[in-house]
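Note to self: keep these together.
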Amino acid sequence: MLAQVSPWYAHAAQRLTTAPAHALTPPTRMEWSTRPGLGPGAEVLGRDLRGKRLLELGCGPGHNIAHLAQHHRARVTGVDLVGLQVQRARSHYGHIDGATFAAGHALHHLQVTGKSFEAIYSVFGAVGLVAPELLLAAASRRLVPGGVLAFSVPHPARAGRHPSTDDRPRQDYVTMPDRTRLPIPRWEFDAHRWAAHLSRTGLRITSAIELQHPRLDAWPTTLLITARKR
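Structure:
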């Protein structure tokens, strides 16, 4: 029920209506931003990902999972709140060895899975949309010692906005394929506030990268955070 009242359910439904899912070739690069080719790629997660167990929180149509499984030979699980998104992902990339997709809430998945991971990541996914004190702690518990947590979120200063000055979420919007917008709550922290939250869960921030297209963006659009489990 939660998934079906989510704006992300409406987003996926519109996508399937306008462009029915079909098998795709995995992309040749992992993207952390909405601007293709901007910033780093899969190297954020580690130099050699062969055989490593990875988890994506909020996998959407599965493009990054397919890239990591096909081009880096990683074993990657993607979880998404919206079953329609998982349906899209399986239609696109269900034929890729090492790529697995599951429907469910990211926090619940972390709480019930018995697996540990070398890296957990989120690309405009669950991080920032689920209470950080809960999600980051659950992710930390599922990382092996030295494991990586990496996530990209909308930059808190995009379009002239300002980072949150407290730990509460504020209203943002998700743009539908038909260009309408639906409200969502989002935690919009700067790197210092993310670092403080990460530190409380046993994770040490190792990098914070602001992504901004030099010609198309007036402000940074994406904040990419990487942390490592102590």
